[in-house]
TrEMBL record:
Pfam families in UniProt: GGDEF (PF00990)
Enzyme Commission code: 2.7.7.65
UniProt keyword list: Membrane, Nucleotidyltransferase, Transferase, Transmembrane, Transmembrane helix
Xref: CDD domains: GGDEF
One example GO MF annotation: diguanylate cyclase activity
Enzyme class: transferase
Protein's recorded name: GGDEF domain-containing protein
Lineage, top ranks: Bacteria, Bacillati, Actinomycetota, Actinomycetes, Pseudonocardiales
NCBIfam families: GGDEF
Segments passing through the bilayer: 26-49, 61-79, 99-126, 138-157, 169-198, 219-252
Organism: Pseudonocardia charpentierae
Boundaries of every GGDEF domain copy: 296-439
């Protein structure tokens, strides 16, 4: 599927009036400009080298026109959903046009497959991406990456003996699966690579690979779309009219993905990008019940920024929002994948630490995490803009209430109460401290299981 490098990777403009005026591509980091030019140039040269020996049949030309037409119809049917989906998506953007581009890779000579890609992405630019304020160079780069992906997938098909090979039995399924993997890998490597070049290594490499590749749901959507493209190609070989049936599940897939992204946005705190209170409570409750069933230990942290009201009163609420965002980034960097992090309200954050050892070693691990978070927040230097000019806010501190050994039968509400009491103990003892409270009292034991 076409994956677009849709991140705000522009830095301070560098005006080069002799190079196509003020086109925004020249505002990118130099290594990114080189990558964009190389990928687009490679796609153009590769297709150009195949045009002269091309011997397209009338059926090939007709099939090219049919795939373009179906792709245009698909875009028009789903254009409203796509525009809304692009507005709510905060990760790499996936369009579903690869149903047609992947089918073209399997069925057509590479130059004609490139015609399908260019036609569909030009239409997407006019109908979806330009109204959504996307950048032209991103669309061009994405189209070039897809052209190279179709070339790679077609090479898999050619190497296996062509269409008769991949429509026959288990061997045909293996060829199609390999083509799906090759298409996805080439496309993602090119797009993720240019994002990585722009973002650099960054000060916090934790979770960087996961951040670049996207969520599991996004990857699953990509594989599902390519699989639908493979079925489209098989339908064309067996009975061309069957391809019309693809439009219905494709539109449903659009709407299902839109609903998923809206659900994700509804669960996210707008200022920090963390889970909001309701979503955190729901996810943490499930994690706690799972820990109780498995007899595992977990830990709960409640963090409250000290004297945060003075930040808002002194520098303004926008500056306060920048501080909250910086604290959220610190929390994401210091916890492990699978831990449940959320903004509980105001300047209060909550973290459920999962998979701790139900021993003193697990308690010590939780202490180290809590202290490291407190220290990292204390080291923050948040650059903000104020009416009086730019400045840096430092000296931020937080008080932390912690509870360990939750592999019992207490409810999340009881655990929160115990951690909240520990938080107020930290406030009373002078702030900028971590205080552990006793485990919450369990309500009842599971049948046949001794109470901890």
């Amino acid at each position: 599927m076409g994956r677009s490098p849709d991140r705000p990777y522009l830095r301070r403009p560098r005006v080069r009036p002799w190079l196509i005026g003020h086109w925004e591509m020249w505002q990118l980091r130099g290594s990114v400009v080189v990558a964009v030019v190389l990928v687009c140039g490679a796609a153009a040269l590769l297709v150009g080298a195949q045009i002269v020996p091309l011997r397209a049949t009338g059926r090939d030309v007709l099939l090219t026109a049919a795939l373009v037409l179906l792709g245009l119809v698909h875009t028009e049917i789903a254009s409203k959903v796509e525009r809304m989906r692009r507005r709510v998506s905060e990760s790499s953007y996936y369009d579903l046009s690869s149903v047609w581009t992947f089918a073209a890779a399997l069925l057509l000579p590479p130059p004609l497959a490139a015609v399908v890609v260019v036609a569909l992405y030009s239409h997407l630019w006019v109908r979806v991406w330009r109204p959504a304020k996307s950048r032209l160079h991103r669309n061009v780069y994405t189209a070039a990456a897809v052209v190279l992906a179709t070339q790679a997938a077609h090479a898999v098909v050619t190497g296996s003996g062509g269409a008769p090979r991949w429509t026959d039995g288990a061997a045909g399924l293996a060829v199609l699966a390999l083509a799906v993997v090759v298409y996805a890998v080439v496309n993602n490597v090119l797009v993720v690579g240019v994002i990585a070049l722009q973002e650099g290594s960054g000060p916090e490499p934790h979770g960087r690979v996961r951040h670049l590749l996207g969520k599991v749901d996004d990857i699953a959507l990509e594989i599902a779309t390519l699989s639908l493209g493979a079925l489209t190609a098989v339908a064309v070989v067996l009975n061309a009219w069957l391809v019309l049936l693809v439009l219905v599940p494709l539109v449903v897939l659009h709407r299902a993905d839109m609903a998923r992204q809206l659900e994700q946005r509804a669960a996210t705190d707008g200022k920090t990008g963390l889970l909001n209170a309701a979503a955190w409570h729901d996810k943490a409750e499930r994690a706690l019940r799972r820990a109780q069933r498995q007899g595992a230990a977990a830990g709960l942290l409640i963090l409250d920024l000290d004297h945060f009201k003075s930040v808002n009163d002194t520098y303004g609420h926008l500056a306060g929002d920048e501080v909250l965002s910086a604290v959220a980034e610190t929390l994401r960097a210091e916890v492990r994948e699978g831990d449940v992090v959320g903004r509980f309200g105001g300047e209060e954050f909550t973290v459920l630490l999962r998979g701790l050892e139900p021993t003193s070693a697990g308690h010590r691990q939780m202490e180290l995490i809590a202290e490291r978070i407190r220290e990292r927040i204390g080291q923050l230097a948040v650059a903000v803009h104020t009416p009086d000019g730019p400045l840096t806010i430092e000296g931020i501190s937080t008080s932390v209430g912690a509870v360990f050994d939750l592999g019992r039968t207490c409810t999340l509400q009881q655990v929160l109460g115990a951690a909240d009491a520990a938080l107020y103990a930290a406030k009373r003892d002078g702030r900028n401290l971590v205080r552990f409270g006793p485990p919450a009292a369990p309500t009842h034991a599971f049948p046949g299981r001794p109470q901890a």
